[in-house]
Each structure stands twice: as structure tokens, then as C-alpha cells.
Amino acid sequence: MSTNVAEVLENAPDRVVPKGTDRGVTDTFFYDNKIVRDFGIATVFWGIAGMLIGVIIAFQLANPDMNMGTQYTTFGRVRPLHTNAVIFAFVGNAIFMGVYYSLQRLCKTRMYSDLLSKINFWGWQLIIVSAVITLPLGMTTSKEYAELEWPIDIAITLIWVVFGWNMFGTLARRREKHMYVAIWFYIATFLTVAVLHIVNSYEMPVNLFKSYSGYAGVQDALVQWWYGHNAVAFFLTTPFLGLMYYFLPKAANRPVYSYRLSIIHFWSLIFIYIWAGPHHLLYTSLPDWAQSLGVVFSVMLLAPSWGGMINGLLTLRGAWDKVREEPILKFMVVAITAYGMATFEGPMLSLKNVNAIAHFTDWIVAHVHVGALGWNGFLTFAMLYWLFPRLYKTQLYSKKLANAHFWLGTLGILFYAIPMYWAGFTQGLMWKQFTAEGTLQYSNFLETVLQIVPMYYMRGIGGVLYLSGVFLMVYNLVKTVKSGTLEANERTEAPVIVPTVSNNAGHWHSWIEKRPTQMAIFATVAILIGGLVEFIPAFVIKSNVPTIASVKPYTSLELQGRDLYIKEGCVNCHTQMVRPFRSETERYGEYSKAGEFVYDHNFLWGSKRTGPDLHRVGGKYPNSWHYHHMMDPTSMSPGSIMPSYPWLFEQEINQSTTQDKLRVLKQLGVPYEDDYIANSNEELMKQAKGISADLAKEGIEVKPEKEIVALIAYLQRLGTDIKVKTEEVK
């Protein structure tokens, strides 16, 4: 029976009139390969963009001149652009590419709606473009991996719903009754990312470009790292595990090693992962019980994580001879190995004695990039090499180029990770080193920075090697595409209802494998338990955040300065959390208390110390020191790798936003009086004139309206709300 493809797609893109065969009644239908191709191209484009920005910021840390002297290209503003481009643009498009290809074939049907597929594609690209525009402009929430402002958050929610609608619609019309393990991970990914994004994005808008988190201080930190850790879990891990379960057996031409292991792997992983967020906040002001929960579940996480790795590697049993010849399998093997390494190191780093040395150092940067470059990057490259020849009905242009890409990428990872591990060990040990007399051996924080600058250069070289391999891949794929023709609508036939074929047939779990609604409900319950157990006590029981009477809200000038601190991305290099270690209290002052952060919307504890902690910097230096330090950091700290901020001395404080900011914060519980809000700009100028007059005493002429004055006011406020009483030694 002949069929006109155009006519079929116009009338019913999913099917043709059934016909009888010896297999029973079958349908002819067409897979949508064009949407897969589009997401593949976007994956490559944004991968290059995100990695190029990563190389730039790597060299910015080694050489401040690489900040290029403009406010739009400093490390503080560009670093979140790099993370968003790599995570949500590169990896995000790779997820959609892999899901849209595999889901159609696992369900034996075309995607539910071509229109929804297109909205998903173009909406996601517009979100990424909006990030490219807003982040360099300093429009950021400062919350790691969630920096985008509220209008973009709403857009992300809408497009994610479109993706889920399309996915569940496809599952509802599937011809294959049984849902393969990859689909379980896709369902868990959609549901959990939706919950994470909505809860963490609870914020109150000030205007179109500015908002404040609905949470403050300790509670904001708990929610953010519940989100931050599980963004890694359910955006960088679970969807890629689903893709591994589909593409690895295809590439190796072998069935999954153990279907039962995949069941244990799936349910234990999604249940345990959600609890582990507090391990990012060990020794901070977070309540001890929450920290302990994070440690316990992080250690437990090793078992299901390695269950997935073992299942992946053992799927290659009997096919290791192919690994020597096939670059796709090489990429997959290293990707799964990197996943295993990262998921071993994560639980290890969550142990308090290890975390005490590693946290805030470049060790964490190395750990994260082993997963990102190895697991996500290499598995994405493998999928691209596997998919494009099939989409274009041709052969890969050059296996030699693909092998060259593999070795360049592997060297790139080594040149990146090893120097960062070395830098992290160096930092952790130097920060804690005492002399025989009991004083800090390296009391000047800059001494530790100068020791690791060579490692930053090596890290940049590793990035160049890795990116060079990507350019080889682009050439290889372009030549592959030119040698074939895209089969935009791939014709196929399948029985109207495909009999269940499963390694798990007859097992109790097969019941849920046929029911996407029940699967979604059970998965949602599994991922909600951990979050609820951590959040409810933290928000309801007031003793978790003891208040301190001397802690007052920020003045209007200090608040404007704090927002400039956020705008410039200072939190990317400086923490505001003095941990209760002798090495830190000797260096910075009294350790941080939970009650000091009750008016901090958003929290600014940070996750990396490229520069010193600033929580006790208030009153430590005169106003003139901060003035000169922001104009030329090397004038106060010779050898500093911090960039200068000359625009702060030229631009004026935007006083039109002051009252709106205070009103929003009052709605969030900050006790501002109505009279103070009404006169906030007068109070702002009064305090600003005092700072300006103080600077004038040292021969520095600066108008009180300038942004530098507000930033100085904020820095001088930090850590001054509490006074520690010390007894005299008699």
C-alpha cells in the first residue's frame, strides 16, 4: 500500500490506515527526526559557546587583565553565564535531543505534538538567549545555578510544562505497553526538576529586573542547596542515566546487564538523592541535625550510584573488543567511569573531616568538572556521533577524527582536573597551617592565592584542549551531514499494540512499568519525602534560627550596596560564612551565627573562596582602603588577581528603586517602618554624605551619589551586628 508522507503528516502525523500482516494489525507512522536534529545542532552550538566562556574565565582567574576592563566581562558577571550555558544550554539541549529520539522509539509512536516539540525547542533557545543578555548586565539573583531573574523563571516553568505535556502525551498514545527503564528516569527528571525549580524560585519581584528571595538566611541556604545539589542530581544525572540505558546497549549491541539492578538503582537513587543537599553547608550556621541528615544520605548515595555505573560497564561484557575500535564506545566507557569517580568522591567529600579541608577550595571545582566534562560531556559527544549518521542515513565521516577528539578530550580533563585537585589540596592545607608558636603561618590570604596561579593557567590549557576536540567533532559532523540526507520523517511500522517484551516480565515491578500515571505518582512521593523532612522543621521550629536582638535590617544605603555586591557577582569569589574552626576565627574573627542572616534576602554564604571571607570585614579597614581596593586591587594587595571596578566610581546609585526594594522586603518580614521607607532616600543620602566626608579627610573627592559609596557602606556593615565579649586573662 503506497502512502503520501505529506498527506499523512498533514492529516494525522502519527499514523496511516492500519493494514493486516502476519504479525496482526500494524500501523505505518513516522518518527520526527527533524526535532532531534534541531536539538542536536543547538547542543553543539551552545556547547562551544559555554566552553569558550569557560576557557575565558579560567584565564581571568590567572590574569585579571583577561577581564577586559568592562563591567560586562568581569569574572563575577560571566561565571554564572558559563555555568548556565553549559548546564542548561549544552546539557539541556542534549537531554531534549536524546529524549525526543529515544522516547519515540521506545513508545513506538511519533511525539504527541509537533507543535509542542517546536515550542519546546524555540522556547528553550529564547530562555538561553535571555540569560546571555541579562547575566552580563548584572541581572542576577546570585543563587547558584538559579541566577536568572523572575520573568525568565516563569518562562522556564512554562517551557518545562510543554516538555512534560509532550512526553506524557506520547506515553499515553504509545504502542509499546511496557515502559523501558530509560523512561522511568525521564519521568523522574521532569517531575523533580519541576518541584525544585518552583520551590527554589519563590521570590518577590521589585521590578522587571530585580527580585528578592522569599526565604532568608539559613532557610534560603537550605532551600538553595536542596535545589543546587538536586539540579546536579536530576538535570545532570538522572536524564543522562536514562540516556545511558538507551544509547549504550544500542551502541554496544548488547542488552542491559541487569534489569533488576536497574529497578533497585532507580528507586533508591531518586529517594536518597533528594536528602543530600545539606552536605554543601557543613560547619555553617545550618542546624546540626540538618547537616547530619545530609551526611548520612550522601554516604548512602554511593550504593545506588555505583549500581548504575556497574550496570553500565557490565553491559559491555563480551563487547570490549569493540571499545578498541569504536570511538563512540570509548566516549561512553570514560563517561560512565567519570560518573563512578564523581559519585564516589561526592559521598567522600560529604564526610565532615574531609569537607573541613575541601570546602571552599578548588578541590570542589575539580570534582564538579570530572562529572561535567567526563560524564555529561563525553556521553553527549557519544550520542551526537551515534545519532547524526542515523538521522542522515549515512556513515560517520571519520572515525580517526572521532578518536582524536576522544584523546584531546581526555587530555583536556586531566589537564583541568589534576591542577585543580592540586590547587584545592594546597589551599585547604595552607589555610589551616599554624606555626610552632600557635599563629597562622599564612596569615595573609593572598599568599595562598599566589601559590595556585600556575594551576589556574594549566586549568585554562586543559579547557583549550577539551574545546579543540569539540571543534574536531563539529568538522566531523558537518562532513557527515553533507554526505547524507536528513530523513526528517522516518517511516516505520509497528503492531497497533506491541506485546510486552521485558527481561522483567512476571516480576511485581512489571505492573508499574505499564502505568505512567502510577509511576509518576510513586516517583513524586519518593522525591518529596526528603525535602519535607528537612524543610518543615527548619521553617516551623523557631529554635533552628535563634534571633539576635542586636541584628538590625540594612539601611537603605547598605541595601543598595548589597545589591551592587550581588550585581557584580562578588559572591562567586568571596564567602560570608566564618566556620567554627580555629584557623578561620584566627583569620577572620568570630564564627558566623544563624541569627545574623535573618534579614538576608538572598543569602550570600558563597561556595568558593578565591578571595578571603568577608563576613567580618566591617570596620576592619578604613573607607579609603575599600575605595582604593575597588579602583585598583593591587594598590592594596600586591599580586592580587581581583579585577578593578572603575565604573562604580562613575555610575550613580539608582535611588528610584529604593522605596520599592524596602516595601518588598517589608512584605517578606523585614521590620522596616513606613516612615523610614517614605524617607529612605533622604536617609540614604545622609549616610552617603558621611562616608563621602570621611573620604575627603584623606584627600579623596567622591560624590555621595556614586555606587562606590553604597558598596563601601555595605562592606563596612558586614559582621558588625554582634559584639563578642572576651574575658580578661588574669
Automatic annotation (TrEMBL):
<keyword id="KW-0472">Membrane</keyword>
<feature type="transmembrane region" description="Helical">
    <location>
        <begin position="364"/>
        <end position="388"/>
    </location>
</feature>
<feature type="transmembrane region" description="Helical">
    <location>
        <begin position="81"/>
        <end position="103"/>
    </location>
</feature>
<keyword id="KW-1278">Translocase</keyword>
<feature type="transmembrane region" description="Helical">
    <location>
        <begin position="259"/>
        <end position="276"/>
    </location>
</feature>
<dbReference type="InterPro" id="IPR000883">
    <property type="entry name" value="Cyt_C_Oxase_1"/>
</dbReference>
<dbReference type="GO" id="GO:0022904">
    <property type="term" value="P:respiratory electron transport chain"/>
</dbReference>
<feature type="transmembrane region" description="Helical">
    <location>
        <begin position="225"/>
        <end position="247"/>
    </location>
</feature>
<feature type="transmembrane region" description="Helical">
    <location>
        <begin position="328"/>
        <end position="344"/>
    </location>
</feature>
<feature type="binding site">
    <location>
        <position position="229"/>
    </location>
    <ligand>
        <name>Cu cation</name>
    </ligand>
</feature>
<dbReference type="Pfam" id="PF02433">
    <property type="entry name" value="FixO"/>
</dbReference>
<keyword id="KW-0679">Respiratory chain</keyword>
<dbReference type="GO" id="GO:0009060">
    <property type="term" value="P:aerobic respiration"/>
</dbReference>
<feature type="domain" description="Cytochrome oxidase subunit I profile">
    <location>
        <begin position="39"/>
        <end position="487"/>
    </location>
</feature>
<feature type="binding site">
    <location>
        <position position="280"/>
    </location>
    <ligand>
        <name>Cu cation</name>
    </ligand>
</feature>
<dbReference type="GO" id="GO:0015990">
    <property type="term" value="P:electron transport coupled proton transport"/>
</dbReference>
<feature type="transmembrane region" description="Helical">
    <location>
        <begin position="115"/>
        <end position="138"/>
    </location>
</feature>
<feature type="transmembrane region" description="Helical">
    <location>
        <begin position="150"/>
        <end position="168"/>
    </location>
</feature>
<keyword id="KW-0408">Iron</keyword>
<dbReference type="InterPro" id="IPR009056">
    <property type="entry name" value="Cyt_c-like_dom"/>
</dbReference>
<dbReference type="Pfam" id="PF00115">
    <property type="entry name" value="COX1"/>
</dbReference>
<dbReference type="InterPro" id="IPR003468">
    <property type="entry name" value="Cyt_c_oxidase_monohaem-su/FixO"/>
</dbReference>
<keyword id="KW-0186">Copper</keyword>
<keyword id="KW-1133">Transmembrane helix</keyword>
<feature type="transmembrane region" description="Helical">
    <location>
        <begin position="39"/>
        <end position="61"/>
    </location>
</feature>
<dbReference type="InterPro" id="IPR036927">
    <property type="entry name" value="Cyt_c_oxase-like_su1_sf"/>
</dbReference>
<dbReference type="GO" id="GO:0020037">
    <property type="term" value="F:heme binding"/>
</dbReference>
<dbReference type="GO" id="GO:0016491">
    <property type="term" value="F:oxidoreductase activity"/>
</dbReference>
<dbReference type="InterPro" id="IPR036909">
    <property type="entry name" value="Cyt_c-like_dom_sf"/>
</dbReference>
<feature type="transmembrane region" description="Helical">
    <location>
        <begin position="456"/>
        <end position="478"/>
    </location>
</feature>
<keyword id="KW-0249">Electron transport</keyword>
<feature type="domain" description="Cytochrome c">
    <location>
        <begin position="556"/>
        <end position="719"/>
    </location>
</feature>
<protein>
    <recommendedName>
        <fullName>cytochrome-c oxidase</fullName>
        <ecNumber>7.1.1.9</ecNumber>
    </recommendedName>
</protein>
<feature type="binding site" description="axial binding residue">
    <location>
        <position position="369"/>
    </location>
    <ligand>
        <name>heme b 1; low-spin</name>
    </ligand>
</feature>
<dbReference type="GO" id="GO:0004129">
    <property type="term" value="F:cytochrome-c oxidase activity"/>
</dbReference>
<feature type="transmembrane region" description="Helical">
    <location>
        <begin position="519"/>
        <end position="540"/>
    </location>
</feature>
<keyword id="KW-0812">Transmembrane</keyword>
<feature type="transmembrane region" description="Helical">
    <location>
        <begin position="400"/>
        <end position="422"/>
    </location>
</feature>
<keyword id="KW-0813">Transport</keyword>
<keyword id="KW-0560">Oxidoreductase</keyword>
<dbReference type="GO" id="GO:0005886">
    <property type="term" value="C:plasma membrane"/>
</dbReference>
<dbReference type="InterPro" id="IPR023616">
    <property type="entry name" value="Cyt_c_oxase-like_su1_dom"/>
</dbReference>
